[in-house]
UniProtKB/TrEMBL annotation:
Entry keyword annotation includes Transport: no
InterPro entries the record matches: PG_1098_Fer, SAM-dependent_MTases_sf, Thump-like
Originating species: Flavobacterium laiguense
Keyword Methyltransferase: yes
GO molecular function: methyltransferase activity
Coiled-coil region list: none
Residue ranges constituting the PG-1098 ferredoxin-like domain according to the UniProt record: 278-320
Domain (THUMP-like): residue spans on this chain: 321-391
Family annotation (SUPFAM superfamilies): S-adenosyl-L-methionine-dependent methyltransferases
Name of the protein in question: SAM-dependent methyltransferase
BP terms from Gene Ontology: methylation
Length: 393
């Protein structure tokens, strides 16, 4: 940890260059030769990244930042705030502390929080930052978190883990056993220290695959920010068997949308229809959950097709996702496309459709943008159709 970057003149320089291209700044001469230029540039890059993601850190004086990639990989304050709403009690230990964003918010809910970080330099940075943030109920331990867990020999109200993928594991699909720490391998140990374990994973993890590796999963939280799924939270309780609850949370500047259901619980058989007056597209957290029949059944909507995951109704309802008024429904054919959409400006979405958005735009010369929203999809009779819509929400 280089405390020299806290020099008031260097801090002033860093703040005056927030948002500027570091690649261009790197070509300049270092105005502070007693400090490594790369250290100053890193503070500019990381703090720039923190401006939107970590506003509390950004607005607090004398914060030291780790590498830009560490800031990119850390939880946002929005997701950390939600995470903190899950836990309660006296004490929590975070076995993969990182930059400490989650622990800062956990400390608002818990009496004591322990931050474990194997990287001693990062641990020192986090400890320094917690002092700047006037947070007094978090203790930082550098080194192997399993050794810390055993050495403290306490019964914890919560254990929190954010396992990272090993660098040698490639591909889009991965298992928890391929991460560090290997949660499935250590699960018995964790439950000997706590009755409640909260695990954060990236949205890339398949829910079915995660359930096959874990035990005692009570709730899975799917958290999206601005309609992009950011993380899955696996809430495990010792001894729990049976139903798994799925909670979808979609957070935007305007509001927070939630939809909950019980995984694999019997629901009514979906009803299908041709497009009616309104069209509904579930938000990304619901799409990740796989609760397509559940959301349609709960809101008493008709599905367009078993695999299209679009819904329709004659009466306008409140819905967790985007809502459109269907202005026109046309067959996907040369004559219809030339008449209604060729050379037009429109927002294009495909759902259960054999062509990509890129190919559709190129084929029919459709420009991006405008007030038209076009859904290329398949109806209940397996016909390829295009729904031309105006957006209501």
């Amino acid at each position: 940890m280089n405390l020299d970057v806290l020099n008031p003149k260097i801090q002033e320089f860093i703040n005056s260059n927030i948002g500027k291209a570091v690649s261009k700044l790197a070509l300049q001469k270092n105005p502070f030769p007693t400090v490594e230029w790369i250290d100053i540039l890193n503070q500019i890059a990381a703090k720039t990244k923190a401006k939107e993601k970590l506003p509390t850190w950004f607005s607090t004086p004398n914060i030291i930042y780790p590498s830009k990639i560490s800031v990119e990989q850390t939880s946002s304050e929005k997701t950390a705030l939600y995470k903190a709403s899950i836990v309660s009690g006296e004490n929590l230990i975070d076995l993969t502390g990182g930059f400490g964003i989650d622990d800062y918010y956990f400390s608002k809910q818990m009496k004591n929080v322990v931050h474990c970080e194997i990287n001693s330099e990062l641990s020192d940075i986090v400890k320094h930052n917690f002092k700047q943030l006037n947070t007094k109920n978090i203790t930082c331990y550098a080194g192997d978190s399993l050794a810390t867990l055993n050495a403290l020999d306490l019964k914890w109200d919560w254990i929190y883990i954010d396992p990272s993928r090993r660098s040698d594991i490639k591909g889009k699909v991965f298992m928890l056993k391929d991460c560090l720490p290997n949660v499935p391998e250590h699960l018995d140990l964790y439950f000997s220290k706590s009755d409640a374990v909260l695990i954060k994973t990236a949205p890339i993890l398949d829910i079915t695959a995660g359930l096959s590796e874990l035990q005692h999963v009570k709730t899975i939280h799917i958290v999206a920010i601005d309609n992009e799924v950011k993380e899955l939270l696996w809430e495990l309780h010792k001894g729990h068997v049976g139903n798994v609850k799925i909670k979808t949370i979609s957070i935007s500047k305007e509001k927070t949308e939630t939809f909950d259901f019980v995984l694999n619980e019997y629901i009514e058989i979906p009803t299908y229809s041709l497009p009616l007056k309104f069209l509904y597209e579930p938000n990304s957290s619901i799409m990740k959950s796989g609760g397509f029949d559940e959301v349609g059944s709960f809101h008493k909507l008709n599905k367009l097709h078993k695999h299209s995951h679009l819904y329709t109704s004659d009466d306008l309802i409140s819905f967790p996702g985007r809502i459109f008024k269907i202005e026109n429904s046309i067959a996907y054919g040369k004559i219809e496309m030339k008449q209604f959409l060729e050379n037009q400006k429109a927002n294009v979405t495909t759902r259960n459709f054999p062509e990509t958005v890129e190919n559709i735009r190129k084929k029919w010369k459709i420009k991006e943008g405008g007030n038209l929203y076009c859904f290329f999809t398949t109806d209940e009779n397996n016909n390829k159709i295009v729904l031309i819509c105006s957006k209501l929400k």
